[in-house]
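Working notes for the structural subgroup meeting. M.R. asked for a predicted model of this chain before we commit to crystallization trials. I am recording the input and output together here so anyone reviewing the notebook later can reproduce the run.

Input as submitted:
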Amino acid sequence: MCTVIVGFDPDATTPLVVAALRDEMRSRPWEGPAHHWPERPTLIGGRDRLAGGTWLAVDPTGPRTAALLNGWPWDGRMPWEGAYPASRGDLPLHTLARHARDPRGGRDPLEGEDPTRYAPFHLLDADARRATLYSWDGRCLDTRSLPTGVTTLVNTGLDPADPRAARHTPEFARTRPDPDLAAPDAPVADNDEEAVRRIWGRWPELITEAAHAKPRTPGVGPDQGDPSGLVAHADLGDGQVWGTGSVTLLALARDGVRYAFTDAPERPESWRMVPT
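Returned structure, recorded in token form:
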């Protein structure tokens, strides 16, 4: 993934809300959120068919989530996946599995991992009590607790100066939803689009607006795009297209989670609720 917006407040009714946008080559095969891993039957997430891992997964029994962003190496080299023996997409699965073995939450999610096996990454590990970002740049592993409020994570990590973070964090913070997932009198939505709007408020609308705005590109070619664009799109030639292929919304309380997904963020009606 390339952008993860995190609203974290342990004192809120719903302490954790997340909007995660996955940017990838459109030709890379993947599957939508489901129980894809028989050896980890409680986990739900999208599956990268090429390497078998995920960019984001949820364990509803926690409840807890782990999400992955590709990082940039300390020396500026492009972090090509094939140059490393392990896939970064394994990290969210390993993280949730370790927490499942230690429900008290004291286990280091990267315990036993050799980070040099992986290309640079940023790994979000979050539940209703804490949200932590682990960043590996190929030389140093940095651990940071996310502050209370809304934070935008990008490929340079927790970087408020990034154009995306500077532009979008204030609006997502102003409209941060706080649904009561356990309310017994909560109205039943007629369809998934309505359910998404009731749970996440203005956030889906902000994502749709971003999908219709000038996109972000890799900064090469005649169209430089908008570096602050939340949604990415670039035609790289020879039929190769890179861009935002899907978006995940999460709302996670102390005893429940709601999960929504779309592979067409420009169309509000494309959102679907994922059973948890």
